[in-house]
Structure formats: C-alpha cells, structure tokens
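REVIEWER CHECKLIST
Item 1: Sequence provided? yes
Item 2: Single chain? yes
Item 3: Sequence as submitted:
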Amino acid sequence: MVSSPSLDPPIVAASAQANLHHAYFLGLQLMVANQCDSDVVERWIFRLFRRQHEAKFLAGLEKLDLVGLPDAVACARYHVLSNSIGGVPVEYMEEGPHKAWVRFRYPRWMFDGPALCGIPEGASLGFLRGWYAHNGVSLNNPRLGFVCVSEDLSGEFGMCGYFREYPRQLLPDERLQFARDELPPPFDATAQPAPPSAQWNAERLQKANRNYALEYVRNGLIELSATIGAAQAEAIGSKAARLIGLQYYRATAAAVAAHDGDARDAAHYLCTMMRGLGDDVQMDTTATATKAVVRHRGLRILRDLDPANSELLLACWTQLWTGAIRSHRALLDLHIEREQADMLTWTIVDRRALA
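Item 4: Structure as written out by the authors:
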C-alpha cells in the first residue's frame, strides 16, 4: 500500500469537512422537523444543547482565558468567542460587570440559508433552556440568568439577549426570561473580545471550525436517539446523510481539487477529505479505474464514544460518503467494512463494470 497524493493541504480539506458536516446538521434538523412533531424537535434540541453545555462550557472558559471575570461578562464573552471560532457571527455589548449582551447576526449557522424557514420555533426555546439558562447552574451562581429579547425563528432581529446577575437568587423558571420590549446597546467594534492570539492561530481556528461542526453532528445523532429511539434516529440520520453527500459532493470535490472521474479518482477524493479530519488514510496500490480500496484508520468521528453510540454514528455517517461517491459522473458504488474499532476499509467499484 502507498499513500495517495494529497491534492491540497489538509487544512483546505478540514474546511471542506466543516462545510459538509454543517450541511449534514442542517439536513438532519430539517428531516427531523419534517418527520416528527414540533415538540420532539424542541426536546431534541434541548438535549443536544445541554449535552454540548456540559461537555464544553466550563472547559471553554479556561481555554478562552475568561476565568476570573464577572460571571455575566464571562458568559457573554464565551458565547461570542466560542461561536465566532465555529464561524458564527456574534456581537458583544457590555453594560457593566453584572449585565452583558450577545447578538447573533444573520445568516444563522444553526439554520443557514432557506433552512431557517423549515425549523419550528420551539427549537429556539430548546437551545435557550438547554444552554443559556444553565450557565448560572454550572457556575454555581444562583443569581445568574439570561434574558432573551429576540429569537431567530420568530421574525424579529435575530437571537439576542443578555446575561444578568441579579441581587437575589433565581427560581428555576426564572433562569430564562423574555423581555421583547428591550433593545441592545449600540455595537462598538473596538469592544469586541478576541481569542488569545498566541494559542489561536489561523490553522487552529480552522480545525476548531471543523470540530465545531463535527460535534453538532455527533451529539445531534446521539441525542436524537435518546429522544426518539435508536431505530428511528438511524433511519432519519442515514437518509439525511446520504442526501447531503449526494448534494455536496461537487462542492467538496471542487474545494479539494478532486477530479470527477473513475474509481481511483473517487479514492483520491476520499483520502483527501479524510485527511481533513486528521485521520490516517491509504489507497491500495492495486487500484484500477473500476475498483479502488482505501484503508482508513483513526476515525475522529468516533473518538471517545461508547459502543452503542459508535455503531449508531457510524451507520449514519458512512452514508455521507456513500452519497458522495454515488454522485460521481461514473456510476460508482461504495462498500464499507469495519475491520477494527478505529479502522474501516472503503471499496469503490464501477457499477457498469460489474453489470
């Protein structure tokens, strides 16, 4: 076996992976909204954002050098910085140590493009309750809450609100409040926080953008399974993945300068894309125009998952690549075999040659 040549630096493929997994997360939301009741979407998004919060929030405060700031200020800066690193435009307005605003600007990463019109409004309440209302709990500050003045899906001016530290302890149902008549202070470009430049160079920011999208896919599928059951989650997740792979092959191929040709070209595409995840991929030297085999080790997409979640995620995620390979001009098919826990064999074949 020899490694297939990289057609572009891995950082370019990392960007393509970020875009592909972002699209997959959008497609998954739309398919869930299409096939499930709106209350299911709200419960799913709540579970997803609570999972993200518990995994990322406190550690993120340290990584972004926000520990020691007043809690309201630290929370607002965290949401500006963490979302900006993931490619999400958010603005920051500080009124004082006990009140700091965030305003998400359109287009919204969570509901990008026309997807904004296909997600029920309950999704907004799900992520507000799942994450924003829980910041004070995680910081062990019962006086900290979030006040929402505008939401994404209600046709106002986008997700906007402020973290406030009150002079008294809040009841559980007071941790999230709504004040539609309030407006944020004017934007000041000179007051926007930035991540520590020494640690967050351009390459790390691009990889963080990729990981941001991957985590939403990983956790989204896991919490979808917990919400509607593994069988239905796999059915929805697999179909959404296949469709996104079919739809986004040409865009990702163009990004990594892949050729829309035979089985060998498809294998080069697959190798280049997987290197964008930081995985180890090699193409067999026996590859021909009608059949090519790729050995794939590492599997970042499955890292640190228990066996049940790993099986669910793999069943759905591999459909992204089945779709991408089937979208080639040549009528190709993809067969996947899991050799070890962290190793796959991808076999690409020309369907006409087998006919």
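Item 5: Key structural point noted by reviewer: Residues 15-191 form a domain with the Muramoyl-pentapeptide Carboxypeptidase; domain 2 fold (CATH 3.30.1380).
Item 6: Recommendation: ____
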